[in-house]
Specification:
16 helices, two-stranded antiparallel sheet, Serine Threonine Protein Phosphatase 5, Tetratricopeptide repeat, alpha/beta, 11% strand, single chain
């Protein structure tokens, strides 16, 4: 039969009757010669000759099967590898999405991947910006965060952000950032970060681990507010906080302590911003909040070694004084001295209150004497923060009192004493670095005005005019500038 079912012709059947027969090595007998390579396939035997070499047919079968299986396994491996890569990419994209939503790192181990640069915050004057860095870990050479330091810095960020999220704090908007900020190791790096981000406050720190015990050394950078150096310096808010690594993510003491310190500094710095903006009522509320936070830390009693509360009471006194509440101002300064009897700035605050009373009533000799007494106590007090320029402030204030004494008593010696008080302040200013000179500028302007008044009464007219001119050049107080200009014009009119 043919393949299509029809019978083959007789001629073809006959031509197949007696063909030469060749054994092909298995299967039905096939007529004709078969030759593959160098091997002749021989009949139905189980041996195959390849180039004269006898090879069992079963061996070739197993080799063929193994080759096919190997190819299949290779294909499966390629497919599986591609699927794993696809799944990994999907997981990475989902992790980045979650990280972007939560603002939290998804990997809690050190990485060599460069930290992305965070975007700057608003530099508008009604914004108060806080940057919280990743805390470093000494065990990681302080270059990369550890799981403990990541958890701790992120817990602080969540707490502070929740405190201010969505709150317009009486016209001052609080912005807190943490994501994509790496480790900051010193104040120079903190200042560079603050300049990039327009941050008013940078909170950073280092963890030192010793087995299960560890200590956090927090640090704070505050821009353009030298008063805060008292609170962030030695024996203040940057004291180490001990903790155990096991309870770092719980409501452990370290979290509570660090949160309290951070919120204290936030409140303090906000109050200083309000003082600059002449918003004294808001400043008072901020300082009161800072005082309560420090009280919670146990830093508002005379027996406390690590103080800080005296500064808050001092700033409260300044704010009360600016709001013309001299009674509360005096009580605040006295409270600061109750906590720290050696605190020079509180003596200056009390001296200013009595000096202000004397300037409103020149016959109040008692007030002027009390002011001089407090200034002289400040001059000898042992706790005089360098950033407060205590000695320079005291000398200017004492010089002002001597000028008033000279005018009241007509005793020329008081003018000489005033000049002796003013000149060292001017010399300190002239020899200071630019950043210090900027901070002292307004104080020195007052010294020049007093110096001009003393020279004028001594009939040193040229020296008086030069001093008044320097006052006008340095001062940013229009009232003081106008008074100095009036004196120059009066001298010129008198010939």
């Amino acid at each position: 039969m043919r393949n299509d079912g029809t019978p083959a012709s007789n001629e073809s059947l006959e031509s197949q009757a007696n063909p030469p027969q060749i054994n092909t090595g298995g299967g039905p007998v096939i007529h004709g010669s078969v030759h593959i390579g160098d091997g002749d396939f021989v009949g139905r035997d189980k041996i195959i000759y390849i180039g004269g070499l006898k090879v069992p047919k079963s061996f070739l079968i197993w080799v063929s099967v193994a080759l096919i299986v190997g190819i299949l396994l290779l294909v499966v491996a390629i497919v599986v590898n591609q699927q794993i890569r696809q799944n990994t990419d999907d997981i990475g994209r989902k992790a980045e999405s979650i990280d972007a939503k939560l603002g939290a790192p998804t990997v809690l181990v050190p990485t060599l991947t460069p930290t992305p640069t965070p975007e700057p915050m608003s530099d508008l004057p009604n914004f108060f910006n806080i940057a919280i860095t990743q805390f470093g870990d000494v065990t990681n050479s302080n270059d990369y965060p550890s799981p403990s330091s990541i958890n701790l810095s992120y817990a602080l960020f969540k707490y502070i952000n929740s405190e201010f999220d969505g709150i317009d704090d009486v016209g001052l908007e609080i912005d807190v950032v943490h994501n994509h900020i790496g480790v900051v190791k010193d104040k120079k790096e903190a200042e560079a970060l603050a300049n990039h981000l327009h941050a008013d406050l940078v909170i950073y720190g280092t963890i030192v681990t010793n087995g299960e015990m560890a200590e956090l050394y927090p640090d704070f950078w505050v821009g353009d507010h030298p008063d805060t150096e008292e609170l962030t310096g030695q024996h203040r808010l940057d004291q180490p906080i001990p903790f155990t690594t096991a309870n770092i993510t719980s409501s452990a003491t370290v979290n509570v302590n660090l949160r309290t310190r951070a919120i204290t500094l936030v409140s303090l710095t906000k109050g200083l911003v309000y003082l600059q903006q002449k918003k004294t009522e808001q400043a008072i509320l901020s300082f009161l909040h800072a005082q309560q936070q420090l009280a919670d830390l146990g830093q508002c009693s005379p027996s406390t070694t690590h103080k800080g509360c005296e500064l808050v009471y001092l700033l409260l006194g300044i704010a009360y004084s600016q709001s013309q509440n001299q009674g509360n101002a005096q009580r605040s300064f006295e409270k600061a001295l109750e906590i720290n009897p050696a605190y020079a700035r509180a003596y200056i605050g009390l001296g200013n209150i009595f000096y202000d009373q004397a300037t409103h009533d020149w016959s109040n000799v008692t007030a002027l004497a009390a002011a001089l007494d407090y200034y002289q106590k400040a001059q000898t007090a042992s706790d005089a923060p360098p950033s407060a320029y205590v000695l320079q402030k005291v000398r200017v204030s004492i010089g002002n009192i001597y000028v008033i004494y000279a005018q009241q008593t007509k005793e020329e010696r008081y003018f000489a004493l005033a000049i002796e008080s003013y000149n060292p302040v001017i010399k300190d200013y002239q020899q200071a670095q630019p950043v210090v000179r900027e901070r002292m500028r307004q104080l020195v302007a007052i010294a020049y005005f007093g110096l001009g008044a003393a020279y004028e009464r001594q009939w040193k007219i040229d020296e008086a005019k030069d001093a008044y001119a320097e006052c006008i050049k340095l001062s940013d107080d229009p009232g003081l500038q106008q008074r100095a200009q009036t004196q120059i014009e009066r001298i010129a009119a008198d010939g």
